[in-house]
């Protein structure tokens, strides 16, 4: 592995955890939803904090330090009436660079073609 690109990953949890928990509860009627996984994305989640610390420790090991390139993209367009699913501050890994993609959380990995600005931004980081 030479690098990792995160696309809207909630490293610090999601600010709309209450909305997500309510949605998961209602979706459970239609489709079985794992509420424990949804709880792990809450900003105060001990599971999320442990995963984050373990990831940071891994990257500081001599065999990985300065060997793995890390970059994060965050959503640049909010959902109407909801806001950002994972705001910029929640996607940040403090020691690594980041950039916005002009799309909402659901569309930030969908590109129309190789001239799409989002695709161009991701491709530029991967080269």
Strand content: 5-15%
Q: Structural class, please?
A: alpha/beta
Show unreliable segments: none
SSE pattern, N- to C-terminal: EHHHEHEH
Distance between the termini: 14 Å
Strand order of the largest sheet: 1-2-3
If you compute it from the alpha carbons, what radius of gyration comes out, rounded to the nearest whole angstrom? 16 Å
Work out the number of β strands. Answer: 3
Count helical runs.
Answer: 5
Q: What integer is the average pLDDT?
A: 80
The largest sheet is: 3 strands, parallel
Helix content: 25-40%
Oligomeric description of these chains: single chain
- Mass-distribution shape: flat
Explain the layout of strands and helices:
Elements (H helix, E strand, L loop, with lengths): L2 E5 L9 H14 L4 H6 L5 H15 L8 E7 L12 H4 L6 E4 L15 H10 L1
Parallel strand pairs: 1-2, 2-3
Would you mind describing this structure in some detail?
Helix content is 39%, strand content 13%. The protein is of the alpha/beta class. It has a three-stranded parallel β-sheet, with helices on one face. Strand 2, helix 4 and strand 3 (98-101) form a beta-alpha-beta unit. The longest helix is centred in the middle third of the chain and has 15 residues, at 46-60. The protein starts with a strand and ends with a helix.
């Amino acid at each position: 592995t030479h690098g990792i690109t995160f696309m809207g990953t909630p490293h610090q949890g999601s600010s709309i955890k209450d909305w997500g928990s309510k949605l998961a509860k209602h979706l459970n009627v239609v489709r079985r939803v794992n509420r424990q996984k949804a709880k792990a994305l809450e900003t105060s989640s001990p599971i999320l904090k442990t995963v984050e610390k373990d990831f940071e420790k891994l990257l500081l090991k001599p065999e990985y330090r300065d060997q793995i390139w890390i970059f994060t993209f965050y959503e640049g367009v909010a959902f109407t009436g909801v806001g950002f699913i994972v705001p910029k501050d929640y996607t940040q890994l403090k020691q690594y660079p980041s950039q916005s993609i002009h799309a909402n959380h659901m569309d930030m990995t969908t590109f129309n073609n190789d001239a799409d600005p989002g695709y161009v931004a991701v491709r530029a980081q991967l080269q």
